[in-house]
Specification:
Blueprint: E1 3-6, H1 13-22, E2 28-30, E3 41-45, H2 50-59, H3 62-71, E4 76-79, H4 81-84, E5 87-90, E6 102-108, E7 119-124, E8 126-127, E9 143-148, E10 150-154, E11 160-166, E12 169-177, E13 180-183, H5 191-202
Parallel strand pairs: 1-2, 1-3, 3-4, 4-13, 5-6
Antiparallel strand pairs: 6-10, 7-9, 8-11, 11-12, 12-13
């Protein structure tokens, strides 16, 4: 197994790399498809806006590559914006198409009295499909660290493995289909629960 972290010029690479090292894996940082070589697993840690992320991926020739990688059911772990770009588009950047891997749109939290936006800090994620290949050994309501103002809304919720509630709004906190896993929270900042997820994804 060889693990790669996609560097599109805007993600939180250091924390994800450190999490992998704590699990005994030395990741390869990848800034273009030419650098993927014999990597078997890819992680895309997102940080920043939807539109900027897609623009940076396009500029590095990574958009088409990621579509092909995921279509071939090769292991992909998307974090935060790395999760959101899997969808058709986002209210954050209506003019920018996403990867279109999962049908649906990324929506902004609706304002409501007392609700803080962005959603920031620790929150529980309720399992919706029990133990799956990646979502296993975590219990019913593990806590993870979030920081975001937008969240994906899949058309078909069969891929959703966990849901999260912020105020009165409930959203798809994580999805899993085949060898694809993606989450709105940051596993690299979520202590043991986050490390367990990454470990499950790698199959170690």
């Amino acid at each position: 197994m060889k693990v790669g972290i996609i560097d599109y010029g805007g993600g939180n690479l250091r924390s994800v790399a450190n999490a992998l090292r704590s699990l005994g894996e030395e990741p390869r940082i990848l800034a273009s498809p030419d650098e993927v070589a014999d990597c078997t697993h890819l992680l895309l840690p997102g940080q920043g806006s939807f539109g900027d992320t897609m623009d940076r991926l396009d500029a590095r020739g990574l958009t088409g590559f990621l579509k092909e990688w995921i279509a071939a059911d090769r292991p992909y772990f998307g974090i935060c914006v790395g999760y959101q770009i899997l969808f058709d588009g986002s209210e954050e950047a209506p003019e920018t198409p996403g990867l279109g891997i999962i049908p649906g749109q990324v929506k902004r939290f609706q304002d409501e009295p007392g609700l803080k936006i962005p959603h920031m800090g620790w929150n529980s994620a309720t399992a919706t499909r029990g133990d799956t290949r990646v979502w296993q050994g975590l219990g019913v309501d593990p806590y993870f660290y979030y920081i975001h103002s937008y969240f994906p809304e899949p058309v078909d919720r069969s891929s959703v493995v966990a849901e999260t509630t912020h105020g009165s709004q409930r959203f798809a906190g994580a999805v899993e289909q085949g060898n694809l896993f993606a989450a709105q929270f940051h596993p690299e900042k979520s202590q043991q629960a986050g490390l367990r997820l990454i470990q499950n994804f790698l199959g170690i």
